[in-house]
Design goal:
By secondary structure, this protein is mainly α. Helices cover 78% and strands 0% of the residues. The chain contains 15 helices and no strands. α3 packs across α9. It starts with a helix and ends with a helix.
Length: 323
C-alpha cells in the first residue's frame, strides 16, 4: 500500500511539473493550467538570467538589483516559458494524443478557449513586465521588450503552422536551444549592462550545446513524430546515431566556449568548465548512449546540473574579463 501511495504521489508531482510519466485525472483548473506551463522547463531560463547578470559585470547584491533579477526571472520562466509551453501544447494536441494522452488538452481536462485565454494572458503579462524592466533600468531603447517580442515570435513559429520549426530536427532544436540559453542570457545581461555582439555570438554558439540538450527530449516522442511526419533527429538518423549527435554537440560546443575563455586569458574559469564536462561524458556513457529511450530522464537529471554550472562559470568569466 505504501508503495502504491508513493507511486501515486510521484505521478501527481510529475503531472504538476509537466514531466513524462504523469497521471491523468486532475480536476483542479489551476493545477491543470500549471501543468500546461510545465514548471520543470522554467529552471534553465531562470538560470540563464543569472548567467547574463554575471556576464554583464554590472550586477551587485543590492536589494534593487535582487528585485530586478527576480522580476526578470519571472519574465523568463513562469511568463514566457509558460507561454511557450502552453502554445506548444495547443498546437501539439494531436501528437500528444499519441505520445502523452494524459496531457491536459488531449485528455479533455481543459477546453480550447481556456487554453487560448491562458496563452494570451501569459504573453501580454510578459510584454508588460519586460516594458516595466526597461523603464526600471532606464533603457533609452526597449531592449527587454524587443527580446520578449522576439522570443514570443520564435515560440510561435516553432510550434505553429505553416513554419512549425519543430518539424525539422535541426531548426526546431536550435530554436529551442537558443531560447533556453541565449535569450534569457541576453535579458540578464541587458538588464545590468550593455548587450554587445560578442555576447550575442558567444551565447548563440553556446546554444548549439542547447540544441543537443533539446534533442534528448525527442526520444520520448519517436513513434508519434514518425506517424505525423515530424523530422526529429531520432526519426531522421535512427536512435543510436541521433544519440551520438546529441552528446557530441553537448560536449564539443561547451569545450569550444572553454577554448574561447583560454583565448581571453580566463584560464581558471576555462579549466573549471572543462572539468564540468567530464561528469557529463560519464553520464552519457552510463545512461544515455546505452539506452536513450529508457534513460533520457535519468541522464538529464544526472548530467544537466554540470552543464548549467558550466554556463555560470562562463558568465562569471566573461564578466571578469569585461567582455
Amino acid at each position: 500500500m505504501t508503495s502504491d501511495n508513493s507511486a501515486e504521489r510521484s505521478a501527481k508531482t510529475r503531472q504538476l511539473l509537466g514531466m513524462k510519466g504523469a497521471a491523468p485525472g486532475e480536476t483542479s483548473i489551476w493545477k491543470i493550467r500549471l501543468q500546461l506551463m510545465k514548471p520543470i522547463t522554467w529552471i534553465p531560463l531562470i538560470w540563464g538570467v543569472v548567467c547574463g547578470a554575471a556576464s554583464s559585470g554590472g550586477y551587485s547584491w543590492t536589494l534593487e538589483d535582487i528585485l530586478k533579477a527576480a522580476t526578470c526571472m519571472l519574465l523568463s520562466g513562469p511568463l514566457m516559458a509558460g507561454y511557450t509551453q502552453t502554445l506548444n501544447d495547443f498546437y501539439d494536441r494531436d501528437i500528444d494524443a499519441i505520445n502523452e494522452p494524459y496531457r491536459p488538452i488531449p485528455s479533455g481536462a481543459i477546453s480550447i478557449p481556456q487554453v487560448v485565454t491562458q496563452i494570451l494572458v501569459l504573453l501580454l503579462g510578459g510584454i508588460g513586465i519586460a516594458y516595466l524592466l526597461d523603464v526600471w533600468a532606464g533603457h533609452e531603447f526597449p531592449n527587454l521588450t524587443c527580446l520578449t517580442l522576439g522570443g514570443a515570435f520564435i515560440a510561435y513559429i516553432y510550434s505553429a503552422p505553416p513554419l512549425k520549426l519543430k518539424k525539422n530536427g535541426w531548426l526546431g532544436n536550435y530554436a529551442l536551444g537558443s531560447s533556453y540559453i541565449a535569450l534569457p542570457w541576453w535579458a540578464g545581461h541587458a538588464l545590468f549592462g550593455q548587450l554587445n555582439w560578442t555576447i550575442v555570438i558567444l551565447t548563440l554558439f553556446y546554444s548549439l550545446a542547447g540544441l543537443g540538450i533539446a534533442v534528448v527530449n525527442d526520444f520520448k516522442s519517436v513513434e508519434g513524430d514518425r506517424q505525423l511526419g515530424l523530422k526529429s533527429l531520432p526519426v531522421m538518423f535512427g536512435i543510436g546515431t541521433a544519440a551520438w549527435i546529441c552528446v557530441l554537440m553537448i560536449d564539443i560546443f561547451q569545450a569550444g566556449i572553454a577554448g574561447y575563455l583560454i583565448s581571453i586569458h580566463q584560464n581558471l574559469y576555462a579549466t573549471i568548465l572543462l572539468l564540468l564536462i567530464i561528469p557529463q561524458i560519464t553520464f552519457q556513457d552510463m545512461y544515455f548512449l546505452r539506452d536513450p529511450l529508457k534513460n533520457d530522464v535519468k541522464y538529464q537529471a544526472s548530467a544537466q546540473p554540470f552543464l548549467v554550472l558550466g554556463m555560470l562559470v562562463a558568465g562569471l568569466a566573461l564578466g571578469h574579463a569585461a567582455i
